[in-house]
Amino acid sequence: MSFLEKRSKPFWGAVGFILVIILGIVDYQTGVELSITLFYLIPIFLVAWFAGENLGLVISAASTITWFIAEYANGLVYSSIMIYVWNTLIRLGFFIVSTRLLSELRKALRANQESAQIDYVTGAASVRYFYERAQIEISRSQRYKHSLTLAYIDLDNFKAVNDRLGHTIGDKVLRAVTESIQRQIRPSDILARLGGDEFALLLPETGDTEGKQAIGRIHSSLVSEMLRNSWLVTFSIGVVTYNQMPKSVDEMVKLADNVMYSVKTKTKNGVCYHVCAS
User: At the topology level of CATH, where does 127-276 sit?
Assistant: First the structure.
């Protein structure tokens, strides 16, 4: 499925037209007594699903014309020319409705996938999506011998903000945290909300030196953002660079959480670094 989704629109357009031509030939060979109507939906559905609604409508029109030509070439005669027009419009309408319904289904599925990948409140990645991506990055780092850095970020005094200013302001704080971090990171980095006021930031192909620089900038940016809005929130961050990959994402997150907790129980508003050496 992934291979098919990567094919271009011209590719699917060509596939659609070729299938329609083949069906037209089969339709002509089988004559007027045997209907192959449903088979015309195959190129329409393929193109509409993988190349979009507009190209699907084009293939729908091509299928209608091909069907008409096959019938006419077989010598099918109606009592009035209007019957040709009526039947052709009915078939075109059937194909168009099928294309639109499939397109809407595709959009709904994509929206559902996106909602499963994104935390509704903050716009950061969801926990499930983070774990899926983190496992992929662990495997990739093992294969290519790259370092991997994970930062576990906890908001200090966030509960007091919720209690004093309300959950609306609390959600605003969480969104500001997400936006501030996202401005500082690369497209390949993964920021996720793990729950409540805790975030995880995964930095693929990042060693301890680069990790310290990146998290140092992010911590300063977050503190400045809170001060600018007069929110009395600071950040305890545990950062672990893995030169030796963990066995699982759970193990990776747990270690970073423990490193963060060492900051939380001592000074708060700081960053603690740890390296899992090979």
Answer: Alpha-Beta Plaits (3.30.70)
